[in-house]
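Query structure, 317 tokens:
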């Protein structure tokens, strides 16, 4: 499908965009990638990098020209440590970028447009959530701004799917908590923060929260593979969860990082007073298996080992 096709990856300097580009290069795609303030962690050969501000219509039209497929990976990282003011500003910018890129991609006659939503749109639940529950109330309070913006983004995608039916297919994926190489280790996202603390041999290793929060984790390369499968196989508006379907506690994550990196005698201190996110995030991944034939293949230990190795190499340079 992608061999010889012109593919645009917005946010090509980012964590998800960089891992996606590496996968796409294996398909024979002709890739151009955008970046804005953050330059790529590495400039990948055979990729045409373009500096662009996707909150400006002119730039969106410029990067969309002549493309067949668009992977919309541009977004702002919003970890637990971000202020409400930052979250509001960034979610507004995300919606502006989505709106402008949908319109410019359609005007450029792109065949398909993939938009990355998020599992933060789901309400708190003790059981795995199917895609139909994506707009159920109430949103978890600490996800309200981000979750509301993602829901609005999905509605915008749905409107364009109806508007462009038969011309441009809109594909929406909802990843769970992604991690892996090329992520900004200075963020307050849980895995980068913990890896940094362990590698730097913090004593003690401070963990935000009490360690009982449950996440569904997906390694970045698995996510990239799922996104490519979604672009290939989805031909109507149908949001799809991309995750492992497994429950992993924060305690297990930090203990695995410590074991993999060989930090013997590490002391762990949990701090419930620090900002944390949803206590339990469980999603149903049946649709991804049935529609895409997708399931994750990277274990938590292998994924963390690869991430740690990448970060150590980057830090040494």
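Result returned for the query:
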């Amino acid at each position: 499908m992608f061999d010889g096709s012109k593919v645009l990856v917005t946010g090509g300097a980012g964590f998800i965009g960089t891992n996606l580009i590496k996968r796409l290069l294996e398909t024979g795609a002709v890739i151009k990638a955008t970046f804005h303030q953050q330059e790529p962690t590495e400039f990948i050969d055979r990729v045409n990098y373009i500096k662009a501000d996707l909150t400006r219509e002119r730039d969106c039209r410029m990067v969309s020209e002549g493309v067949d497929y668009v992977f919309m990976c541009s977004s702002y990282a919003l970890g637990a440590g971000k202020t409400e003011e930052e979250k509001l500003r960034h979610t507004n910018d995300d919606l502006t970028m989505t709106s402008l890129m949908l319109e410019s991609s359609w005007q450029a006659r792109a065949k398909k447009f993939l938009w990355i939503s998020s599992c933060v749109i789901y309400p708190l639940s003790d059981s795995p959530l199917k895609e139909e529950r994506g707009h159920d109330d109430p949103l978890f309070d600490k996800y309200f701004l981000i979750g509301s913006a993602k829901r609005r983004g999905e509605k915008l995608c749905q409107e364009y799917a109806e508007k462009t039916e038969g011309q441009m297919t809109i594909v929406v994926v909802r990843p769970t908590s992604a991690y892996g190489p090329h992520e900004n280790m200075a963020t307050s996202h849980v895995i980068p923060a913990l890896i940094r603390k362990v590698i730097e041999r913090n004593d003690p290793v401070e963990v935000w929260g009490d360690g009982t929060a449950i996440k569904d984790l997906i390694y970045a390369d698995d996510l990239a593979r799922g996104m490519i499968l979604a672009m290939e196989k989805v031909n109507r508006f149908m949001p799809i969860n991309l995750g492992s379907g497994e429950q992993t506690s924060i305690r297990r994550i930090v203990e695995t990082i410590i074991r993999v990196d060989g930090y013997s005698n590490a002391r762990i201190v949990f701090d419930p007073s620090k900002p944390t996110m949803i206590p339990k995030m469980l999603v149903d991944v049946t649709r991804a298996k049935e529609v895409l034939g997708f399931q994750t293949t990277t274990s938590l230990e292998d994924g963390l080992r690869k991430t740690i190795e990448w970060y150590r190499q980057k830090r040494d340079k």
